Amino acid sequence: MVGTRRASTSSSTSVAHGKDLIKQIQAAIATNDHATALERLDDFKVHAATTFVGNEEDELRLRREAAEHGVMISAATRDEESFERHASQAKAAYDACKRAPCKQPIERSQNEALIVGLNLLRLLVQNRIAEFHAELETTDDDVLKDQRVQAVLELEQFLMEGAYNKIAQRQNALPDPSYEYFMSMLMNTVRDEIASCAESAYGSLTGAEAMKLLGFANAQEFEKYANARDWTMDANGGVVFNEEVAPASARDIPAAALINQTLLYAKELERIV
């Protein structure tokens, strides 16, 4: 009996310190002090590994929250390797909470849909389509219905359709600010595709038309992009596309990559159907 009380007291003390570390992580994130947040996160991981006893509710919640903070810090610091590691930890924490042998089910984290949406966007940007769909299959329906996940599913659909203009329109309507980094990466790819299409379809465009088409809100950024593609700026701020651009048949086309991508989409569609 005495031993049980000691174990309970020790566990309570361990959880209390874990909660304090989580609060320190949150405070550091709130002030954009990501270096300190990462230090406290490392402190928490060591503390959890050495003092947490197993599958107690409070411990599972704290592990889950710590993993979520790791994902958000990684997104803010644009550390893709750290993001992938913490996203995997968050997924494991969600599963552990579902399977926990508790009297009452542990409530779902309010941030689960956000973390899932962010991870799906990362997989989409990295062209890891098979993993993207595998993630969908292992995600609960109520999470998939969340707008933070639906927004990414729409982007994937737009990519498959080649509806790049719709992706550009979503750039300023993100479901959460944390999506900005991966969305900017996706937008860079999409912008290049749109620019290539514009070069083939038009001889020139007004500045306003080109900025809208390419999703630029800043004229200086647009001019920098136009110069990088060797476009000529006219006196009115419009662009004249390079007339000496080689036709598609004469360009270096990554044939193997295109074939592999086409086969990958075909396999995914066959598996889905």
List keywords for this structure.
273 residues, mainly alpha, 3-stranded antiparallel β-sheet, 13 helices, 3 strands, elongated, disordered N terminus
Uncertain spans = 1-7, 245-251
What's the mean pLDDT score?
Answer: 85
The quaternary organization reads as: single chain
DSSP summary, beta strand count: 3
> What is the straight-line distance between the termini?
59 Å
The helical percent reads over 70%
Strands of the largest sheet, in order across it?
A: 1-3-2
Which class best fits the helix and strand makeup? Answer: mainly alpha
| Succession of helices and strands | HHHHHHHHHHEHHEEH
Radius of gyration of CA atoms, rounded to a whole number:
24 Å
Indicate the overall shape.
elongated
- Helix tally equals 13
Beta strand % = under 5%
Largest sheet descriptor:
3 strands, antiparallel
Question: What does this protein structure show overall?
Answer:
It holds the Pfam family CSN8_PSD8_EIF3K. InterPro entries: 26S_Psome_Rpn12, CSN8_PSD8_EIF3K, PCI_dom. One of its GO terms (biological process) is proteasome-mediated ubiquitin-dependent protein catabolic process. Belongs to the proteasome subunit S14 family. Residues 86-257 form the PCI domain. The protein is mainly α and 273 residues long. Helix content is 71%, strand content 2%. The chain has a three-stranded antiparallel sheet. A hairpin with a 5-residue loop joins strand 2 (232-233) and strand 3 (239-240).
